[in-house]
């Protein structure tokens, strides 16, 4: 039982955030303008690209951000003073948010989302934003990775709900799977809440509940027009497929015999045999659905064995991000208003002995552009600039690796597309959330921008995410300033 009844998410944060905000407020720093970047460092699953998801929930969260009476009562109980609670009571999100569109193809070390807000607000929302974007982007990326191997004509179906890490992950995971390209979900609530296409077959329990498998299929067919029969409860080829065919023949035009589902055994062999049997019986349009611990590796392998599988049902390994359960996105302060009311770039160096530039944050208010080659229509890479830079006004771009700077190229004939949409401006929502179908279509329409080398599932090439010379120099200069301060 919960001790409080409301469904406020405003305390969906870590205690240290509240304590920092109290400190800022008591010192009068809470209203200073701050800029935070939200980004991950490394692509998950060894994939060559990521798929951004989580924005819709971030928007809902920020729009509804206010401390309820129960939030305040809890904080009062925890010992916070009435004066600070009065500040929290009035607190709303008044800042600006710039973010990638959901479904955007994304890469390491580029801001997926940028928050410009009074320090107190920007700090208090950090944990929730990371929580939402980390999980949803991880699952959307896993889904896209699986879709890359099922191919255009192999349907991917999300079966994950029962295996997800609790209710929220089940709901938002199904949505993320759709963002990443899954065609359909078994999750009825996700269908209701987000309008996702749903579909389903039946379980072994229905077959077990009847005296015989034939009786179970027949009973289902008598009450449903669209029928997919699960054929592996007893013996797939000797009992399951023949019973499915028998019922379909008996029911004739009264049903649409959509397919059979295989959930165990040698899926390559069984699918080929089932296909042969269905075709011989004249059911050439009937599909074969496979499930049972599938992921991109088993699917690739099954396809290489010539498996006759049309639809892939994927649960556990999709919804839990099984082989990499965390994306590791972070939220870092990159600029803050100083005593003189001017913005000051900030940087975190960290305790790395190696002086690894990669782990250091990139200071400054920045934009991210995708550099599209206007001749071959492919992306040359992403290009992170300082605010105010306008790459489209340049004749030629110098793109170089931000750590191994000798890896460089000059790009002409390009179009630089700003990847950040303005979502909130001074607390006001100025972005209309696209439909789920548009989000998925947007993701798919962007895939041709990437060379195949970035999209292969095994050992893809590293897609360039470069800093503009000004952004890079600013970073190096800031690093030297910090180092000099300590060597004096
Ligand atoms: N031809 C195949 N080649 C490679 N992997 C396969 C093939 N057929 C099935 N698999 C995969 O191998 C694993 C099969 O594991 P296992 O034999 O333990 O379970 P199962 O046959 O699905 O039966 P059960 O559901 O009773 O566990 C699953 O992950 C399945 O997706
Ligand atoms: O294997 P996953 O990728 O996680 O996909 C979800 C699994 O959930 C069901 O099995 P379960 O044993 O839970 O129920 P059942 O009795 O209907 O087979 C289904 O048959 C899949 O095998
Ligand atoms: O509809 C199905 O076949 C289904 C749904 C959830 C999990 N496993 C299978």
SSE inventory with pairings:
Layout: H1 15-27, E1 33-39, E2 50-51, H2 55-63, H3 69-77, H4 82-90, E3 96-99, E4 105-106, E5 113-118, H5 119-124, H6 126-150, E6 155-158, H7 166-179, E7 184-185, H8 188-194, H9 204-209, H10 213-223, E8 226-230, H11 236-251, E9 256-262, H12 267-280, E10 287-291, H13 296-304, E11 311-314, H14 316-319, E12 330-337, E13 343-345, E14 366-373, E15 379-386, E16 397-400, E17 408-411, E18 414-418, E19 421-425, E20 428-429, H15 436-446, H16 452-455, E21 465-467, H17 469-487
Helix pairs in contact: 2-6, 3-4, 6-7, 6-13, 10-11, 11-12
The structure holds adenosine-5'-triphosphate, 1-O-pyrophosphono-5-O-phosphono-alpha-D-ribofuranose and nicotinic acid.
Adenosine-5'-triphosphate binds next to helix 12 and helix 13.
Domain Nicotinate/nicotinamide phosphoribosyltransferase: 156-337
Domain Nicotinate phosphoribosyltransferase N-terminal: 11-134
GO molecular function, one term: nicotinamide phosphoribosyltransferase activity
Query: How many strands?
Result: 21
User: At the third CATH level, what is the topology name of one domain?
Assistant: TIM Barrel
Strand order of the largest sheet: 13-12-1-5-3-19-20
Query: Gyration radius, to the nearest Å?
Result: 26 Å
Fourth-tier CATH superfamily name of one domain: Aldolase class I
CATH architecture of one domain: Alpha-Beta Barrel
Distance between the termini: 57 Å
Q: What is the 3D form?
A: globular
Class from helix and strand fractions: alpha/beta
Taking pLDDT < 50 over at least 5 consecutive residues as the criterion, the unreliable ranges are none
